[in-house]
Design goal:
The protein is of the alpha/beta class. The protein contains 13 helices and 18 strands. The radius of gyration is 21 Å and the shape is globular.
Length: 470
């Protein structure tokens, strides 16, 4: 998202909502007649930051809601309600439920549900790989960013933790069990952090396990090594068993990262059920603002958030419609979380070093990294076109996607955070971008626009792990 659009979104939200963020004062009122039979849904609800919790509780009860979590630092509550009119009671620009939109989609919506981590343009099906004595030959993606050379100098610091906001990390995988820190892991699907292992462990998807291996995996017996094998990992589960990342889960994830001051998070997803969230749309405005506040707060607490560009093969700034929902897309809209100012946006390249066919692009791309492309084939014995990493049951497999590109960049950011301890996110971003290897547009023009040092396909270039540790 361009700088103009990033600045415009919060202003539009504030203009649309005005002073309605403030909760009404508590007063005597008859008990509400609330629905007690229908299925409950969770909502994000906006308040002025630092609104007293008692006022939040009072309003939610009065309007047939129940508090699930409250983040006073940013004025965002997560509430549960069975009432179909709960959003209307609170205010359509103050409350939103992604879960309810999935269950009761607008009639004009072509696709009510989708997998947030596997969209229509991404080929993330796992290609299982036989576990051999040495898998390093198949790690072409690591060689592309000079990770093996970097690891000879430094694998990163165990004092640096990368928050993996995803579907969970398999805690018993031989390449991950040493890196995973269960003490700072949490499940966030309810909107409130749950630190029990069952809440943050994966269930239906090995997506987060694959991402984690790329960042910090290490299995000496199999010759597999991630970008930064010396850093720690936190499993922050934001993907539910239907494959969806709803706004309340994302808010919880970013606030958890802020609480624990993770230097880096990886976000290989976009927030459901829409693709774009728009500040002028009822409901959307509340979700966008809730996520924006959480991301901005985490950045202020020293967290660098790295995100996948997306896999629809388009420039989001030039879209006029949302592929998943019926409303139009304009300058107030963005794909979350990558549209938020301060988030590092990562596009994908394949083995040949050119943009993957599915990868989104545009002026908001920060850097690029290997995400794979089954059309860009490498020599025999060097893999299947997609990055190799960890999967369920201690295994290894290959997946393609910007979801795979993003953790390469997050791993390099973790190496930088290890070397420059307590460096603010803005400095880490500057280093990540300015140490990247330039990738010119080449024959991709005129769709690819800009010079080699900053263009719409590759941003500032391909991330470089070796330069991060030199």
């Amino acid at each position: 998202m361009s700088r103009i659009r990033r600045l415009l979104v919060p202003a539009l939200v504030a203009a649309a909502a005005g002073s309605v963020f403030a909760a009404p004062s508590a007063s005597a009122a008859p008990a509400p007649q609330c629905d007690t039979a229908s299925a409950p849904f969770n909502y994000v609800v906006l308040y002025n930051p630092r609104t007293p919790e008692r006022k939040v509780d009072s309003e939610l009860r009065a309007k047939c809601g129940e508090k699930v979590a409250y983040y006073p630092e940013i004025g965002v509550a997560v509430a549960s309600s069975r009432n179909a009119d709960f959003q209307a009671k609170i205010g359509v620009f103050r409350a939103y439920s992604g879960g309810r939109d999935v269950a009761f989609p607008p009639a004009a919506t072509a696709r009510a549900t989708r997998s947030a981590v596997v969209d229509t343009k991404e080929n993330e099906e796992t290609t299982s790989v036989a576990v051999e004595e040495d898998l390093s030959a198949q790690q072409w993606d690591m060689r592309a960013i000079q990770a093996p050379e970097a690891n000879k100098i430094s694998g990163g610091s165990s004092s640096v933790t990368v928050g993996v906001l995803d579907s969970g990390i398999e805690p018993t995988h031989p390449a991950l069990k040493a890196a995973l820190d269960p003490n700072v892991s949490a499940g966030c699907n309810s909107g409130a952090p749950d630190t029990t292992p069952a809440a943050w462990a994966p269930t239906t998807s090995d997506h987060g396990t694959h991402v984690a291996g790329t960042i910090a995996g290490k299995d000496a017996s199999r010759g597999f090594t991630g970008v930064a094998p010396g850093v720690k990992l936190a499993s922050v589960k934001v993907v539910n068993d239907d494959g969806l990342i709803l706004p309340e889960a994302a808010v919880c994830g970013f606030m958890w990262a802020a609480k624990h001051r993770f230097p880096v998070t990886n976000n290989s997803y976009y927030i459901d059920p829409g693709m774009f969230y728009c500040a002028k749309e009822p409901g959307d405005a509340a979700a966008f603002e809730a996520v924006r506040r959480a991301v901005t707060y985490s950045t202020g607490r020293g967290v660098l958030n790295v995100a996948a560009a997306g896999n629809s093969g388009f420039d989001p700034d030039k879209q006029t419609t949302d592929p998943n929902r019926p409303h139009p897309v304009d300058e107030s809209c963005g794909i979350l979380p990558k549209a938020i100012d301060g988030v590092v946006n990562v596009s994908a390249i394949g083995y040949a070093g050119t943009k993957s066919s599915y990868s989104n692009y545009g002026d908001d791309v920060s850097v690029t990294a290997p995400g794979g492309d089954r059309a860009q084939l490498q020599p025999a014995g060097q893999g299947v076109g997609c990055p190799l990493s960890t999967i369920f049951n201690g295994g290894y497999g290959a997946k393609c996607g910007t979801s795979m590109a993003s953790p390469h960049a997050a791993g390099v950011a973790a190496l930088l955070a290890s070397r420059y301890r307590h460096a603010p996110p803005r400095l880490l971003t500057w280093l990540l971008e300015h140490q990247a290897d330039e990738v010119p547009c080449g024959t991709a023009a005129p769709v690819c626009e800009g010079p080699a040092k900053d263009n719409s396909y590759y941003g500032h270039g391909r991330v470089n792990a070796l330069d991060a540790v030199k």
